[in-house]
């Protein structure tokens, strides 16, 4: 299926996705600060909580069941003009036409386990996420949902990875802007 990114926008929409703990928010914050064009960091999980875009909350798993229709409605206006980083542990929900770049962060599972333990997640939630990272669930989801040329897999283990990843995305933003000049 061909990529369907909007040509009418002159600011991109970037998804940063990955298993919880891989570094999405850390990357999105740094990217928002270093981007040559305004990019608003939208932490989708926080948006779901703040706007009550969920059907229920599961105490055992410490997670929300998202109301996907309402979430999409809420996001539609936020992404309309571009200039957005969508930070979420899933990506298949976002329509192809919204998205210009999908960054999938990856992390060694032992390191990921340590990061999630620090969050005091319940053991079964740590195990589930660890397994998902090993099985590269989010990467497969991204590859199944978007054109291969817009999906980029990046390692996020140390601060050197963080810096080089953000520098790489900044170069991508610069190139994207050259290809989408203001009319
Ligand atoms: N590339 C990295 N280098 C060093 N620490 C990282 C890196 N990526 C994430 N971390 C650390 O891992 C933890 C989880 O990162 P976070 O950005 O909250 O993940 P996510 O948003 O994917 O759940 C944080 O303590 C963060 O500082």
Please, how many domains?
Answer: 1
Task: Tell me the β content.
Answer: 15-25%
Q: Give me the number of helical elements.
A: 7
Radius of gyration: 16 Å
- What is bound: which ligands? adenosine-5'-diphosphate
Highest-level CATH class = Alpha Beta
How far apart, in Å, are the first and last alpha carbons? Answer: 28 Å
CATH architectural arrangement: 3-Layer(aba) Sandwich
Q: Could you name the CATH homologous superfamily?
A: P-loop containing nucleotide triphosphate hydrolases
Explained architecture:
The protein is of the alpha/beta class and 183 residues long. The chain has one domain (21-175): Rossmann fold (3-Layer(aba) Sandwich). It has helices spanning 24-34, 44-50, 68-79, 109-118, 123-134, 137-145, 159-179, and strands spanning 13-17, 40-43, 54-58, 63-66, 84-87, 101-106, 151-155. The longest helix has 21 residues, at 159-179. The chain is globular, with a radius of gyration of 16 Å. Bound molecules: adenosine-5'-diphosphate (ADP). Adenosine-5'-diphosphate (ADP) binds next to helix 1 and helix 7.
Helix and strand layout, with pairings?
Elements: E1 13-17, H1 24-34, E2 40-43, H2 44-50, E3 54-58, E4 63-66, H3 68-79, E5 84-87, E6 101-106, H4 109-118, H5 123-134, H6 137-145, E7 151-155, H7 159-179
Adenosine-5'-diphosphate is lined by residues 18, 20-26, 115, 156-159, 161-162.
């Amino acid at each position: 299926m061909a990529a369907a990114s909007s040509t009418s926008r002159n600011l991109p929409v970037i998804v940063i996705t990955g298993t919880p703990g891989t570094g999405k928010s850390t990357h999105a914050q740094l990217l928002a600060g270093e981007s040559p064009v305004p990019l608003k960091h939208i932490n989708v999980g926080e948006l779901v909580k703040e706007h009550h875009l969920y059907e229920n909350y599961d105490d055992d798993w410490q997670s929300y069941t998202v109301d996907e229709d309402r979430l999409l409605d809420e996001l539609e206006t936020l992404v309309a003009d571009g200039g957005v980083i969508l930070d979420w542990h899933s990506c298949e929900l976002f329509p192809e036409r919204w998205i210009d770049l999908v960054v999938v962060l990856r992390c060694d599972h032992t390191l990921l386990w340590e990061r999630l333990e620090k969050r005091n997640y319940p053991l079964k939630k740590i195990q589930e996420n660890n397994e998902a990272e090993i099985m590269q669930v989010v990467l497969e989801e991204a590859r199944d949902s978007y054109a291969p040329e817009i999906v980029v897999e990046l390692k996020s283990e140390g601060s050197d990875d963080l810096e080089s990843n953000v520098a790489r995305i900044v170069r991508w933003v610069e190139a994207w802007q050259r290809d989408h000049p203001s009319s």
